[in-house]
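If your schedule permits, I should be very grateful for your opinion on a structural question. I would ask you to consider whether the tokens describe a fold that such a sequence might reasonably adopt. Thank you for your consideration; the sequence and its tokens are set out here.
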Amino acid sequence: FGHHFAAIAAAGPLVGPILAAQFGYLPGLLWLLIGAVVGGAVHDAVVLFASMRRNGQSLSEVAKQELGPVAGFCTGLAMLFIITITMAGLSMVVLHALENNPWGTFAVAITIPIAMGVGLFYKKTGNLKLASTIGFILLMIGVFAGPSIQDTIVGDWLTFDTSTLSVILPIYAFFAAALPVWLLLAPRDYLSSFMKIGVFIALIVGVFIINPAIQFPAVTEFIGGGGPILAGPVWPFISITIACGAISGFHAFIGSGTTPKMINRWSDIKPVAFGAMLVECLVAIMALIAATALQPGDYFAINSKPDVFATLGMSTVHLPELSQEIGLDLEGRTGGAVTLAVGMTYIFTKIPWFENLAPYFFQFVIMFEAVFILTAIDAGTRVSRYLIQDFFGELYKPLKRVDWIPGTIFASALACFMWGYLLFSGDIGSVWALFGVSNQLMASIGLIIGATVILRVADKRRYMLTCLIPLAYLFATVNYAGYWMVKNVYLNPDASGYNVLNAVLSIIMLVLGIIIMFTAARNWIKTFNHPRARLETFSS
């Protein structure tokens, strides 16, 4: 459970609900509660079951065996597009959190040598407890040392704008993906898992202790569209923006990756997959509370560019005071990460004896978000590299060899260039929507495969409805959201998110999803028309 929860709970349950607060607290809360129970928890459970049934194989291999080679190929190709877009979406969050923030950049950058030191120390001594303790202490020192470098020449070196950071992050990922897993990825993943669970618990406890008043209305004037953060209406974009707290296709990578190889009993699927999703939903609700506990004017000032905020007719309330306490201009820091840090800081500083610790709470949350996002970027870049080598290896056989250095360099560089270009050329509104569409499309594919497996093994065919009901809603939502973004944003020269590449990627992904759905539906209809016939099976 601990591994699975730490792996699935990335930036989505924290950032998605914060961005969706644009519509008010009620739409996000309803989608989180309904979506997680009816959709997300079911999706995670059936994907894990389907993978365990095939000895822990990846989702593309499961799709190939359950639905045939065409669906398997389309699923693999969709996974490549989706993981690429996911890296861009997650990196966008880091981008705006570290923009002109030398303290935060230092705290994040210092985690790289700390993690490598922990990896080397553990490899040499084998003492995991001591290595973890040293690593955590050094991480805290990195946060508290931030003020001492902020106004020095080192602080000047670590002050970057978003354009520079959008180049630095893919370059970092290229080299990080080339390092041995034990040297950087594993130790930082281990350290960030403790930080992640600790911050989640602190957020939940803080909300229950302080019981902050919700300052947002149930719904805002932007429910019909035209908002400064998300241009589209509440449907379908509430389900697209909250990309992980209710249902997430990213979980399919975990549920068909490492988790099925760690489970020994079928009965563990319910507490691990179903249970972890419900806990993630709780975290997402806490993030929504942290955002909506802010004054609407403060929230929109953080999540809108200054020129856009000036047109909203709102004014800030506590933000100037918070900016002064934290020592950072908070206006126009879009992306959701800063809003979460401000919301948590606002809550924690209400606790007695914590009133004067605002800058430390803020920068710790920024470091926490950035560290586990960078860990996801490291792992995602590796997954992209393997997928690229697998696809191009059909054209040039040596590329399939993961130990062939030229092939590894080529695949890593291509993977980093693809998501790096999306990062450099996009903004949070367009990139996060692209990420949301791709993520929920992956969830639709997971539900399609789950429904197919249920039809194959269940005594009663109506059990398919556990997948078909959320699938019907999600598939319609994803396709309409993709169509809306292509028409109104990506191919609209007057829109701020105008980007032909994003339009092409959206269309390709939607077509792949339709092909997979059509292939599955054809098999389902064939089975229902011939009650005694077995569902067609495919060998690997």
Observations:
- The longest helix spans residues 358-392.
- Residues 89 and 432 are 5 Å apart (CA to CA).
- The chain has 24 helices and no strands.
